[in-house]
Amino acid sequence: MKHAVLTLDYELYGNGSGDVFKHVIEPTEAILKVLNEKNVKMTIFVEIVEFLRIKQEWDNGNNMGYSSNPYDAVVAQLQQAALDGHDIQLHIHPQWLEAKFLNGKWSVDYDMWRLGVYNGDMKELLSWAKVELETIVQEVIPNYHCVAFRAGGYNAQPSERIAKAMREVGLFIDSSMVPGAVERGALSHYDYSHLPVDKGYWFAQDCLDAPKEDGEIIEMPIVAFPVLRLRKYLSNERLKAIFQNRKSAFETYNAKTSERGEHEHRWGIWKKISYFFEYESQTWDYCLFTKSLHQLFMRKIEEQKDRNVVVLVGHPKSLINVEIIEYLLLQMLPNYSFTTLSKWASER
């Protein structure tokens, strides 16, 4: 029997937009309700930096348009999830480190989008964020320790400094890799095309995207397979998610079809249209996939006889139809044992 790990990137939109209650708290509550009914536990990757920035604004007297404290609501949800047996782990988008709330909205630092090229002290950043997250959970589970990490937007290249800092602060599980994926947009930039698509995990030491026979870090990549982009976008779930935050969706599309730096240019209109007719390594997204895409990925996984663990990803801000998650669980429960990253690693 294969093991399955549902992971949730617990965050607002990367550009700073979104509502903590509408796009994080409420959809996460709906997901947890379904999982708790089925006794399925998941791993929640908490973007702690953004919530600490929100806390700072609230504590300084800026309600940011909220009628109640959004940070307290986040803490309460995470603590209850931990008490219910869910796995709470660390997620960082460095553009939030210097984010400012100006003129009624968040302004993030786009030059700090990629953790791999973060120019500050990597160990200090991971250590601080880890301690802040542990402080929240240890209020209800005193022996809790954060052991797993995911880089924001999967931007973990170059990964040498990340791997070194992880080892130094006690993070021994990473789940930032997306085998087969290549991103060369204006914001995200990585190339994971060299990574094996049929391995549920590998060891790493000095570099997260250099699989080894042994190492101090266990890399648990997110399952991804090539999908025609048009098929990905032309689904009720995806279109509703795009409509839900049109500004963020447009900025993401524009960033993916533009380049920065030495080769910066704007794509022509035909190039931007052709983007939808190309194949892209798509992560197994349980919040956005249609039933047919779930079926496709399950068939592909079954063909991988040596794989014994699969990692899926979801985002509460993308959740449109919780029935898709119910469908997935019904399809997978007979043949998969659901677990969390930290539990699987400890029992491996």
The stretches of 5 or more residues where confidence is low (pLDDT under 50) are: 260-265
Choose one word for the global shape.
globular
Sheet with the most strands? 9 strands, mixed
Helix percent band: 25-40%
Q: Termini distance?
A: 14 Å
**Count of separate DSSP helical elements:** 12
Structural category is alpha/beta
Helix-strand sequence:
EHEHHEEEHEHEEEEEEHHHEEHEHEHEH
Can you characterise this structure?
This protein is of the alpha/beta class and 348 residues long. It contains 12 helices and 17 strands. Strands 1, 2, 3, 6, 7, 10, 11, 16 and 17 form a 9-stranded mixed beta sheet that branches. The radius of gyration is 19 Å and the shape is globular. The protein starts with a strand and ends with a helix.
Short summary of the structure?
The protein is of the alpha/beta class. 38% of the residues lie in helices and 20% in strands.
SSE map:
Elements: E1 2-10, H1 20-37, E2 43-47, H2 48-59, H3 70-83, E3 87-92, E4 100-102, E5 105-107, H4 122-138, E6 148-151, H5 160-169, E7 173-174, E8 182-184, E9 189-191, E10 202-204, E11 217-219, E12 224-228, H6 229-233, H7 236-244, H8 246-256, E13 258-259, E14 265-266, H9 269-274, E15 279-283, H10 291-302, E16 309-314, H11 322-332, E17 336-339, H12 341-347
Helix pairs in contact: 1-3, 2-3, 4-5, 7-8
List key phrases describing it.
348 residues; alpha/beta; two-stranded antiparallel sheet; 12 helices
